[in-house]
Amino acid sequence: MSLPQTLISLSFALTSLSNIFKITQKELKEEVVNYKVVNWLADPYAHGAYSYITPSSKEAVEELLKPVADKLYLAGEALDPNGATSTVEAALTSGKRVAGQVL
How many degrees, rounded to 5, is the angle at CA 86 between CA 49 and CA 71? Predict the structure, then answer.
């Protein structure tokens, strides 16, 4: 009997984090409150794609950064106003920006 793909992926993530932070997988697992494993390549909307800059990207990003009716705020790796799209840093920066706007 094989393990579900989510358990294999969680195990892989814990192994990687354990190596990076030099703590045991058991210690890490005790800290996990919730997790979700996503198969980005199988996602019907993303198909494994990522954002990239085009000549009209600056204007598009500026428009997408504007809240809609003070109720809808967009964030993500594609919405970095400094042009660092397609990076984890851009996603984190974008999320922090939106959290600040909402608060």
Answer: 90
